[in-house]
UniProtKB/TrEMBL annotation:
CDD domains: HTH_ARSR
Protein name per UniProt: DNA-binding transcriptional ArsR family regulator
Residues spanning the membrane: none
Keywords: DNA-binding, Transcription, Transcription regulation
């Protein structure tokens, strides 16, 4: 698996669906799985899971894990650990960028609902290390661009650190956008 991929227009179109984002995220975090297992985890029909997995494969985001499974159960794995998409670098793909961003926001909202249910039972060390914050900044588009670059640089520094044996996947979300009118 490669570290990251920059999303092109075709990949953006494939990922413009919250279910596909969720399936890809699961494969990244937990490793290979079958359509049947993913369908159980996400409460969807196994045929729908298979369809979404084939779409992810056609977009070059996942691949069949041929070392596992049989004719009845196909295993799938992510081809990369991280997707990168900066709308400013692909101005000709605005519609695809917007659809992807919308699906990403919907998937994040679903994940936050699951996290909210787990907060009461988080071990103290993980709860103390977590952060749930909300900041409203007043920025220009250039100011938001500068903030985005700085935050990504911090994440990159931490992503490059060698991992000890006792690590746990941690979700880091950067959501910065102008607030809609009330």
């Amino acid at each position: 698996m490669t570290d990251r991929v920059t999303l092109d227009s075709a990949a953006l179109r494939v990922l413009a669906h919250p279910t596909r984002l969720a399936l890809l995220g699961h494969l990244r975090r937990h490793g290979p799985a079958t359509a049947r297992r993913l369908a159980e985890l996400f409460g969807i029909d196994s045929g729908a899971a298979s369809y979404h997995l084939r779409r992810l494969a056609s977009g070059g985001l996942i691949e069949e894990d041929t070392e596992r499974g049989n004719k009845r159960d196909r295993w799938w794995r992510a081809k990369h650990a991280q997707s990168l998409h900066d709308p400013a670098t692909f101005p000709g793909e605005r519609a695809d960028s917007r659809a992807y961003a919308q699906a990403l926001a919907l998937a994040a909202a679903d994940e936050l609902r699951r996290v909210a249910g787990a907060v009461p039972v988080l071990p103290d060390a993980w709860f103390d290390a977590s952060v749930f914050s909300d900041h409203t900044l007043r920025l220009t588009p250039d100011g938001l661009e500068a903030l985005k670059r700085e935050l990504h640089a911090v994440i990159e520094r931490h992503a490059e650190n060698p991992e000890p044996d006792d690590v746990t996947p941690v979700s880091v979300r950067l959501q910065a956008y102008p607030l809609p009118e009330e």
